[in-house]
Write a structure and sequence with these properties.
Strand 6 (170-175), helix 8 (182-195) and strand 7 (202-207) form a beta-alpha-beta unit. 39% of the residues lie in helices and 22% in strands. The strands form 4 sheets. The protein has an 8-stranded parallel β-barrel with strand order 1-2-3-4-5-6-7-8, surrounded by 8 helices. By secondary structure, it is α/β, with parallel strands linked by helices. The chain folds into 4 domains: 3-277, Alpha-Beta Barrel (TIM Barrel), CATH 3.20.20.70; 294-324, no CATH class; 328-367, no CATH class; 393-516, 2-Layer Sandwich (Double Stranded RNA Binding Domain), CATH 3.30.160. It starts with a strand and ends with a helix. Helix 5 (117-133) packs parallel to helix 7 and helix 14 packs antiparallel against helix 15.
């Protein structure tokens, strides 16, 4: 049985461009659990208080399938396992599974740890035994395994044997610097399979993409008893990244026809969520899930697809993606009609409003909104072109100022109309200008909607939308919450405050639409 180990929340955050809050981690963890991932590596609890907080909060979340994993290393050579603070932190994290790494390449043992090969083997054994004695499932990652195997096969395999004898439940071969080739992986995996023959220990693989072979290397290990695969959503990670778990899942299920307990239809949704919370612009050329993955522009291709002949290696809808016929008015309208159906609206593709909504979507995408699977954004578009409540909120003027006044102090005034009635909202906050804009708009709405203060702003992300140097525009993504309901909206502008206000305004508009349905 294939086991999927996600390290987006640990190895993924080692990407230079990624920083996740505790809330972000919990949101992603829930989504990965829904997807069907077996193991969720939340982070390194011994590294800092924020990491430990994530584990303690995660212990309160009821997951359907996934097991929370705490990461760490083998004990320090000058300490016992019982004294090692990182191992103690793993136990205190309340995670049921520990994943620790240890040195496999003698070069690292001697130069980095400044110790002997035998001492490293003792550290491996002691650490695993300590964690097993604490009633944890233990996954052991062989750091730089393929480099170590190439340099000194006997020692590398001795590390495998030591981990197995100490009681590790799973032993994972790691291509830590991402430089191995499929042939290297296959040779080493064959040797590990032979060594562990007859032992009830799963074999895993963890690959990085520095040479562009992360997925190929993982697949190369598959024939040699490997059933445990580690990777990250969208391949985010240190340096150029890890193996993309989305690509692996789709390939195993659709190319190798292996039965995975995974909801393939949710792949695109989870991919989009991680891009959003990691504040990364989606890769349009990402296999299976990118915007261009099933995009057709060439005349021969388009002609064939429209006549029912395929230029696609799999059905895009199976992984939650969709076909896109570039510059095709017919295909664009068909997509709009499908979106409308999801919101209970029936329309013919020849309806002029369909064409208007399509043009709006194209303008938004060109401007860098990347609304993707944001249901609130789609609902607002449907309401604008097919509803009758678009006068719920209208902003005429706004201003905001911010200064240092016993800390950060901001004021804002917004004028406009709510449900067709002229209103003004003001705010003065011990905080930043975005908070002031939010409170002023909330105040304006309170004249007609008494419970508007129940809507909370819970997440705020900014990234470049269109890179034009000093004239670049920014994309602001904001999440809101009301009770158990959460939604996100987007604003884009060369002015970060204007982009923020647009996202806030749309967030409130969505609340008002849902409230009146």
């Amino acid at each position: 049985m294939i086991k999927l180990f996600d390290t987006t929340l640990r190895d993924g955050t080692q990407s230079a461009d990624v920083n996740l809050t505790v809330r972000d981690k919990l949101d992603i963890a829930r989504a990965l659990d829904e997807l069907g991932i077996d193991y969720l590596e939340m982070g390194w609890p011994g590294s800092n208080p924020k990491e430990m907080e994530a584990f303690l909060e995660a212990s309160k979340v009821k997951l359907k399938k996934a097991k929370i994993v705490a990461f760490g290393s083998t004990r320090r050579v000058n300490l016992t396992a019982e004294q090692d603070p990182n191992l103690i932190a793993i136990v205190e994290s309340k995670a049921p599974v520990a994943c620790i790494f240890g040195k496999t390449w003698l070069q690292h043992v001697e130069r980095q740890l400044k110790t002997k090969g035998e001492d490293n083997l003792k550290a491996i054994a002691d650490s695993i035994k300590f964690l097993k004695g604490s009633n944890l499932e233990v996954i052991y990652d062989l750091e730089h395994f393929f480099d170590g195997f190439k340099d000194n096969k006997e020692y590398a395999l001795k590390c495998v044997e030591t981990a197995a004898d100490a009681g590790a439940d799973c032993i994972v071969m790691c291509d830590t610097n991402g430089g191995s080739l499929p042939g290297d992986v296959a040779e080493a995996a064959r040797a590990v399979q032979a060594l562990l023959q007859g032992k009830k220990i799963c074999i895993g693989v963890h690959t990085h993409n520095d040479a562009g072979f992360a997925l190929a290397n993982a697949m190369a290990a598959l024939p040699f008893g490997v059933t445990h695969f580690q990777g990250t959503i969208n391949g985010i990670g240190e340096r150029v990244g890890n193996m993309d778990l989305c690509q692996l899942v789709a390939t195993l299920a659709l190319k190798k026809n292996l039965k995975l307990d995974v909801k393939l239809l949710k792949l695109k949704e989870v991919s989009d969520l991680v891009y959003t919370l990691a504040n990364l612009k989606p890769n349009p050329n990402q296999p299976y899930l990118g915007k261009n993955a099933f995009s057709h522009k060439g005349g021969v291709h388009v002609d064939a697809v429209m006549k029912g002949a395929s230029y696609e290696h799999v059905d895009p809808t199976v992984v939650g993606n969709k076909r896109d016929i570039v510059l095709s008015d017919l295909s664009g309208k068909a997509n709009i009609v499908e979106v409308l159906k999801k919101f209970g609206v029936t329309a013919d593709k020849n309806d002029s409003r369909v064409a208007e909504m399509l043009s709006a979507v194209e303008r938004l995408e060109h401007a860098g909104y990347d609304i993707g699977n944001l249901n609130a954004e789609k609902a607002l578009l449907v309401e604008k072109y097919f509803g009758n409540k678009d006068n719920s909120l209208k902003i005429d003027t706004w201003k905001v100022s911010s200064q240092q006044k016993e800390g950060e102090y901001s004021e804002s005034t917004i004028t406009g109309s709510v449900d067709g009635k002229k209103c003004t909202g003001t705010s003065a906050v011990q905080g930043g200008p975005v908070d002031a804009l939010y409170k002023a708009l909330q105040h304006m709405l309170s004249s007609q909607h008494k419970r508007i203060d129940e809507v909370k702003l819970i997440n705020y992300k900014v990234r470049i939308a269109l890179d034009k140097g000093a004239e670049s525009s920014v994309r602001v993504y904001i999440e809101f919450k009301n009770g158990k309901q959460e939604w996100g909206t987007v604003g884009v502008s060369t002015n970060i405050l204007e982009a923020s206000l647009e996202a806030i305004e749309k967030g409130f508009k969505y609340y008002l639409i849902k409230k009146t349905i």
